UniProtKB/TrEMBL annotation:
It is found in: Membrane. Its main location: membrane. The keyword Transmembrane applies. This is Tetraspanin. The gene is Cd63_1. Belongs to the tetraspanin (TM4SF) family. Keywords: Disulfide bond, Membrane, Transmembrane, Transmembrane helix. It comes from Acromyrmex charruanus. The chain crosses the membrane at residues 190-213.
Length: 226
């Protein structure tokens, strides 16, 4: 039971740090994702279809954006289609005056939302791992402001509540990758010792069983019943 629990904890920690590292890499390389092509081809240019229209209006209303790059994309790219109400906080079936419409294009808004969401996800996962392992960042505390666009070092990096922040001088110096490696090696040592102990016990049991079997055979050979 204890071994199973230790294995589960180890698995959870590995997943947490793996998520953090993956998120940091994705955030760093998010510029390679072609948001414009995805949004233009799969949604905006299919605005005549009700399903795509609903999706575009939901994005515009939720992210307070309009068009691909600006409100004029509707009349320009969609053959005179008026700017929908979702571009200015109205019901989607209404229309918007260009002067009232959101100025930010939805490609830019989606990129910002994507990066912000990943930053939060990576920070939360790494924050949990930091509390459990007393570590900070991937390699050091500066990974937060450097890789996560100025994100302050969270309280979990110095034993505080995660919603607080840490001064760099108070933060754990060990990165979570190194801490996870140490934890992993320690856990393997413990698990290896337990497994060896179980194996030794089983071996002793096997030896006794063989001895007993041999004794029974010898007794039967002499004509006695057991």
């Amino acid at each position: 039971m204890v071994v199973t629990f230790a294995c589960l904890l180890l698995t959870i920690l590995i997943i947490q740090v793996a998520i953090s590292i993956y998120v940091f890499v994705v955030v760093k390389n998010s510029g390679e994702i072609d948001f414009e092509n995805i949004y233009r081809t799969n949604l905006f240019m299919k605005y005549d279809n009700q399903e795509e229209k609903n999706f575009v209006n939901t994005i515009q209303d939720g992210l307070q954006c309009c068009g691909i790059h600006n409100p004029q994309d509707f009349p320009t790219l969609l053959h005179g289609t008026p700017i929908p109400g979702s571009c200015c906080g109205k019901v989607a079936s209404d229309t918007c005056d260009p002067t009232e419409s959101y100025r930010t294009g939805c490609v830019e808004a989606l990129e910002d939302f994507f990066n912000s969401a990943l930053t939060v996800l990576g920070g939360v996962a790494l924050g949990i791992a930091a509390t459990e392992l007393q570590c900070c960042g991937i390699h050091n505390p500066q990974d937060f402001p450097t890789l996560l666009h100025g994100t302050p070092i969270p309280g979990s990096c110095c034993g505080k509540v995660a919603s607080d922040t840490c001064d760099p001088t108070e933060s754990y110096r060990t990165g979570c990758v190194e801490a996870l490696e140490d934890f992993f090696n320690s856990a393997l040592t413990v698990l290896g010792g337990v497994a060896l102990g179980i194996a030794a016990t089983e071996l002793i049991g096997i030896i006794f069983a063989l001895c007993l079997a041999n004794s029974i055979k010898n007794t039967e050979r002499r004509g006695y019943s057991v």
